[in-house]
Amino acid sequence: MQRRNGVIMRIQDFTDMEQFEETMANWAAATGLATVAVGADGEYISKCYNFTDFCIKYTRGSEEGKKRCEKCDREGSGVYPCHAGLIDFEIDLIVNGEKVGSVIGGQVLPDNPDPEKFKKVAKEIGVNEDEYLEALQKVNVRSKEQVIASANLLGQTLNYFINAEYDAKMNKNNNHQLLHQLTEGVMQCEEKVNEIQQAASQLNAIERKQNILALNARIEAARVGEAGKGFAVVAGEVGDLARDIRELNTSIAETVGEISKLIHTMTRNDILEADK
Questions:
Q1: Euclidean distance between CA atoms 202 and 234, whole angstroms
Q2: Is 89 helix (H, G, I), strand (E, B) or coil?
Q3: CATH superfamily for domain 175-274
Q4: Strand 87-95 relative to strand 78-81: parallel, antiparallel, unpaired?
Q5: Nearest residue to 204 via CA among 144, 252, 166
Q6: Which pLDDT belongs to residue 29?
Q7: Over the stretch 36-52, which tens digit does the pLDDT of each residue have?
Q8: Which listed site, 31, 127, 165, 203, has its alpha carbon 20 to 30 Å from 110?
């Protein structure tokens, strides 16, 4: 019984049940066999297709017959004869190597029925013999080989379908988890970008102060004349340094802008990809 995080997995939680039902309905119409899907908890999870009055109204309609049918449902596997003389089948539905449910059905005769045999069954389960035989005449006849081939086809089709549905759901969940991790990473990157921008602002402030110092130094050098030549050289170097800082700050700002644009582009693309 498949579990995820300690909870029994239900086929209907990860499968498009409308398509699931459509597949079963088409199969039942093509084969003439009865079928129903059963969950891991033993409860029906689909409609009942091609169920016969012989089985539902009469055999399961009696207390003893229902008891015998439920025993067959629990113990039957593959293609097998039921207690009333019909052919039934049970095919496991498997996801990741674990059983998550099954499809059961059949309700067909292997050959033309022996009336005396079914009269005996009618007596044992306590139903009207004539009505039982009348209902029996409406039951389809299929060879065991036909039932085996039909049951295997249904099982393969449904197993392929539910596994594809499960994988798609798990991949989408994983994508959302990766997106969450990416978003956290982007937020951390943006924090670092903000720190760089703050540092760049401080460089701007330093550059402005250096420009003022260089200007004051030049004014002072001009005022004192020949004696201020050395001071003028220093002022020039301070001015050059301020210019270099300004160019560096401009380069930092451009790089930060490109990083921010790239981060937002990546985030948007990953969000679109995760939602597919």
A1: 23
A2: strand
A3: Methyl-accepting chemotaxis protein (1.10.287.950)
A4: antiparallel
A5: 252
A6: 95
A7: 999 988 899 999 999 99
A8: 127
CATH class of this structure's domain 3-142: alpha beta
Residue 265 and residue 258 in contact, taking contact as beta carbons nearer than 8 Å: no
Helix (H) or strand (E) holding 136: helix 129-136
Domain ranges of the chain: 3-142, 175-274
Residue 181: per-residue pLDDT: 60
Reduced to 3 states, what is the DSSP secondary structure of residue 33? coil
Is the pLDDT at 58 greater than 70? The verdict is yes
pLDDT at 171: 79
Query: How far from each other are the two terminal CA atoms of the chain, in whole angstroms?
Result: 30
Neighbours of 227 (CB within 10 A): 9
pLDDT digits over 199-252, tens only?
A: 556 656 666 665 665 556 566 666 665 555 555 555 565 566 556 666 666 666
Q: How many CB atoms lie within 10 A of CB 28?
A: 21
Same CATH topology for 3-142 and 175-274? no
Token duo for residue 199? 């540092």
Pull the structure tokens for residue 219: 């004014």
Decide if 65 contacts 125 (C-beta within 8 A).
Answer: yes
Contact 54, 139 (CB under 8 A): yes
